[in-house]
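Teaching note: in complex prediction, the entire set of molecules is handled at once rather than each chain in isolation. The prompt given to students was simply: 'Predict the structure of this complex.' The entities are:
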Amino acid sequence: MNLSVNIAGAILKNPVMPASGTFGSGREYAEFVDINRLGAVVTKGVSITPWLGNPPRRIAETASGVLNSVGLQNAGVEAFLRDDLPFLKQFDTRVIVNICGRSIDEYIAVAEVLSGSGADMLELNISCPNVGEGGLSFGADAGMVYRVTTAVKKRSGQPLIVKLSPNVTSISEMAIAAENAGADAISLINTVLGMKIDIRRRAFALPRKVGGLSGPAIKPIAVRMVYEASRAVNIPIIGMGGIMTGEDAAEMLMAGASAVAVGTANLSKLTATADVLDELILFMDENGFNDIRELTILS
Amino acid sequence: MRLFEAVILENTQLAPSIFNMRVKVPNTFRAVPGQFVNIYLNRPDMLLPRPISICGLEEDTLRLVYQIAGKGTGYMAGLGRWELLRIAGPLGNGFNIASSGEGMSGAGLELLIGGGIGAAPLLFLARRLKPAMVILGFRSASSVILAGEFLSLGWETVVSTDDGSVGYHGRVTDAARDLTGGVKTSAIYVCGPRIMLKKAAEYAAERSIPCHVAMEERMGCGIGACLCCPAPVIGNGSRTYKKVCKDGPVFDADSIAWEELS
Ligand SMILES: Cc1cc2nc3c(=O)[nH]c(=O)nc-3n(C[C@H](O)[C@H](O)[C@H](O)COP(=O)(O)OP(=O)(O)OC[C@H]3O[C@@H](n4cnc5c(N)ncnc54)[C@H](O)[C@@H]3O)c2cc1C
Ligand SMILES: Cc1cc2nc3c(=O)[nH]c(=O)nc-3n(C[C@H](O)[C@H](O)[C@H](O)COP(=O)(O)O)c2cc1C
Ligand code: FES
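The expected output is the structure of the full assembly:
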């Protein structure tokens, strides 16, 4: 059975990876999952300088979903290069570094610092709903998607994945803007803007009021958007949003993704990434698929 | 591997809405007081784990004491003997017993302060320390738990209630002020509602007593990867967030930026 996929020239041994922000840099999960089994590891968001993140509370539970407001807390790219990247390079997997910034210059700066490093690919997060500047404001406008992508692509030494937000009217328009700007791949979806009110406390569940919704609740949105984007562009798509099982992964691949990322499921089940891979293999086996690419071709 | 399915051996009511659960854990399971386990309820409306402190560990039997606070703990209360529970643990750092005066003669009194369900992890701690004084605060007489167990371990056990229906009438910190009198206190360990932690931290700071507080925060991964469980701390003069699940749940009270916590 062939599970390997080609994303922007890099061969991933299988299409399963964690989604950014739910897996740290893999260190904590290594106790529960054999990192060597994963097609890639996508790191949490890394910025040029350390970011404090949002005050508590940062997470709330909803029906079949989770709202988060972490705010991209991270120790900055220097600490990442010193503490995290060497750890990840020990494993036989691809390293995708998720990058964030408050301005185009900050995105460029972090991409430049990473360009000579051992990172295999960069994932440009222009779709985080939990920060003021940067984040979503870049991802919600096709002109901005084009500008940020062009600027970062010019300076980055690695293939560039652009991570798109679902909080837009037309996902195809954003996907096309990224492709035209030179993106090597796109990933979607980031979290869906949401809100929860604790009626007994008469207060917002999260102090920033809004948060990013993830988990099974958003899967139908993700499947639809991956499908639409796959019709609009020719670059490969990493699909995510509510993948909890191998069957969910198969569905995302059939919608047009070439690879999948597992996010919130890591919180519900520490072995989720490896379990999704095992279940996907089982699904293929039981349904007569010999090559992972046969699933994507369905769309 | 800190992830396993555990058989429930007992799940009985201890007081109104408070339950005592015993589960069988792998015989390699070791824990220190202050550590906790995460319980996975495997339901689509409960995607996040529920952290519960370790109240006791005897050979391969883990004891948890929990209060019904919402749907997850309510669901737990309905589980019966022989049912399986998915558990990750032990998690977190636990109380730093080594830094206290334990074992040193004349080092002073070690004081445990618990509020409500916060008595649970302190009972585990009480087994590892030389008996001294514990002050437990509850809403009223009917909600008193575990006090008898501290007593039988040889601890001087003070119960205080908000309504004065039993024991000392008032706050645990007021009880501490009145009852520890002239005795030198070498360390304070606190677990309870946030306001109690804050008051105890102030009490300890005024007297320059090292104070260890067990913090609570809603969790995502529980292992230090997702950054969903921030504790605002001051370290090297700068404000950062540490992780309650991994750097904590126990913190030195003077490292916490209390003003940020309502
Ligand atoms: C390290 C740690 C140790 C704990 N030890 C114990 C223990 O030994 N016994 C015990 O009864 N409880 C303990 N708790 C609290 C317990 O985890 C929560 O009461 C429980 O998760 C609530 O779940 P629920 O589904 O019943 O409530 P929900 O329906 O999810 O929520 C009910 C209310 O509880 C609040 N809440 C939910 N989760 C937490 C949480 N993790 N921390 C604080 N508040 C929360 C919610 O905001 C809401 O107001 C501990 C918490 C932490 C962080
Ligand atoms: C706790 C948490 C933290 C996240 N942090 C990031 C991040 O740093 N960068 C990013 O691009 N996406 C981040 N995301 C979004 C996820 O990578 C993913 O796009 C989204 O959660 C949808 O997938 P899921 O439903 O499988 O979780 C985060 C999501 C969660 C739940
Ligand atoms: S709960 Fe994920 S870092 Fe603490």
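Point out the following to students. Chain A touches chain B at residues 21-24, 27-29, 31-32, 44, 52-61, 63-66, 68, 70, 73, 215-216, 264, 266-271 (CB under 8 Å). The CA atoms of residues 218 and 242 of chain A lie 6 Å apart.
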